[in-house]
Amino acid sequence: MAQFSIYIVEDDPLYGEILEYQLSMNPDYIIRRFNSGSECLKELYKRPDLVTIDYSMPDMNGLTLFKKIRDFNPDLPVVVISGQDDINTAVEFLKMGVTDYLVKDDNVKSKLWNSIIRIRENQSLRQEVAELKEELGRKYEFEKIIKGASPALRKVFTLLEKASNSEINVSLTGETGTGKELAAKAIHYNSNRKKYNFVAVNLAAIPRELIESELFGHEKGAFTGAIARKQGRFEDANKGTLFLDEIAEADLNIQTKLLRVLQERELSRIGGNEIIHFNVRLIVATHKNLEEEVQKGNFREDLYYRILGLPIELPPLRDRGSDVILLANSFIEEACKKNNIRNVLKLSAPAKEKLLKYNFPGNIRELKAIIDLACILCNGDEIIPEDIRFSGTRARLVGWQEDKTMEDYYIDIVQAFLKKYDNNVVLVARKLKIGKSTIYKLINNNKIHLTI
Ligand SMILES: Nc1ncnc2c1ncn2[C@@H]1O[C@H](COP(=O)(O)OP(=O)(O)OP(=O)(O)O)[C@@H](O)[C@H]1O
């Protein structure tokens, strides 16, 4: 067990010594003795784990001292040791929240010993309950922010929890609108860094020539237009989390600078000499396949390994089964509130069917926009299929690329099905109406990689 600090307030030096001697038999107990209440009060800021007080002290009586201790720390256990065997005083103290009331008799040493054991047991139980509550709170928070209950999302929740409980860098992948930024925020706000800043930078949204100054800051006059010193986003995120969205868009020059800064955990602003140390957790996101970008020579391999950390893939909405309806209902509720629609609208059965059949290339962001519009178009209490409008340009084949061959598409499709059905080759073969051996051949020839 950890060390346990006990303050003894006792004006009788002999009695104080006896108590100290008895308690110091336990090597975990760190004892300090005070001859008066005021001396003890001055040292409370050092956060003892327990205070024992004599009922009658020269400078203040036990009751006054106890009230002052309570004002300072309402949770600190206090044991009163009194020369008076007066039941009324004992009851009064106990009602006020004293942990124990002991009478100075021949057995007081062993009674105090047992009382401390009980207090410690209680404290560790309370701590355990608090920890369990916090853990529960965390789960609740994740599920409150990131809505969904599909098996694909459950796997993500497990990883998000691991990420928030640790300090590891995180790399989020997933198609546009799958909730990468939301996941990054959820990690931050469930982590020990939550009291500090969550800073998001979208590298695709900033002109190339400004990225360096945005990330690392600049000194006044560092370049034309630098009219004042500017702190960079790394500094803004100190002790917190820096979310670099669209990391694949960083050019090789920025990649090199990022690598150096991340390796050394220090930076200097453009045009400055001062070395600035920082402490950030990095979360990066991209809708591209970074490994492929490394192979193509577009992304530095050493930087890739430095930022990879814990990779988390956000599944596309079409792989989240009935989460589509769960999310739709939640967005309907939000939209009705926002638009002052009194009765929360319902999704009719054919409307649900229409949503479930769609492939949502824009994922959750697209679903949200579709639902917002449907709530406005809806005439009754129920959303009907006609209220649900898919934008023609978006309902295209996902992943369409001119340089892909028919075989590439074939492989993509089989790979996607294997992922969706947990690598169940027999089931995938049945769904796609192809032979099992065809799939096994693709796996054996390393054309398909089974992912977990
Ligand atoms: N599971 C979810 N529950 C509720 N809302 C969600 C969920 N996932 C995403 N959203 C919402 O969908 C929208 C898009 O999410 P977000 O911006 O996090 O996606 P993204 O993957 O970062 O997109 P992009 O790659 O385009 O930057 C946001 O409004 C977000 O709040």
Could you describe the 3D structure shown?
This protein has helices spanning 13-23, 37-42, 62-72, 87-95, 108-145, 151-164, 180-189, 208-216, 233-236, 252-264, 290-295, 301-308, 323-338, 349-357, 363-377, 406-420, 425-432, 436-444; strands spanning 4-9, 29-34, 50-54, 78-82, 100-103, 170-173, 198-202, 217-218, 230-231, 241-245, 266-267, 276-277, 281-286, 310-313, 346-347, 382-383. A hairpin with an 8-residue loop joins strand 11 and strand 12. The radius of gyration is 32 Å and the shape is elongated. The chain is built from 18 helices and 16 strands. Helix content is 47%, strand content 14%. It has 452 residues and is α/β, with parallel strands linked by helices. Strands 2-1-3-4-5 form a five-stranded parallel β-sheet, sandwiched between helices. The protein folds into four domains: 4-125, Response regulator (Rossmann fold); 148-313, Rossmann fold (3-Layer(aba) Sandwich), CATH 3.40.50.300; 317-387, Helicase, Ruva Protein, domain 3 (Orthogonal Bundle); 406-444. Mean pLDDT is 89; it is low at 393-398. Helix 6 (151-164) packs across helix 7.
Strand content: 5-15%
Taken together, the total number of domains comes to: 4
The CATH superfamily of the largest domain is known as P-loop containing nucleotide triphosphate hydrolases
The DSSP helix count reads 18
Instruction: Give the strand tally.
Output: 16
What average pLDDT do the residues reach? 89
Bound molecules: adenosine-5'-triphosphate
CATH architecture of the largest domain: 3-Layer(aba) Sandwich
Radius of gyration: 32 Å
Kindly identify the CATH topology of the largest domain: Rossmann fold
Secondary structure category: alpha/beta
